[in-house]
Specification:
Length: about 140
Amino acid sequence: MIRYALSCDQGHGFEAWFASSSDYDDQAARGLVECPFCASTGVRKQVMAPSVAGTKKTVPSPDAMKQMHSMMMQAAREVRDHVERNFDYVGDAFAREARDIHEGRSEKREIYGEATPAEVKKLKDDGVPCAPLPSLPPAPKKTN
């Protein structure tokens, strides 16, 4: 549902609810929207932010935020562990190797390594698929 601020050609202001903006347009075009004060059908929308149901945002609780953060860090660790176990590490030759694999000059295999932001941009611009590994927070310092 959308609430519009409307006014008629006689200067009366009022509000009305419609199922959608196209419903308002359809009803107004057929002369079905009229002023409740004077019955004029010369009605137009006024400038306003329409009210739309279901737009309120909720803020998660601190405990829910901690739980989401923990789950995201665990997922990042799992992705990184999978890549390190199953992909070939090519070090700072990543951009060259990725391009060679993409262009068929090197055997197709999964790789990971290091690349500068400029190298990554060039790879992406050229359609070579690549993505960064998720960063992990530093390991907690052991005390004692």
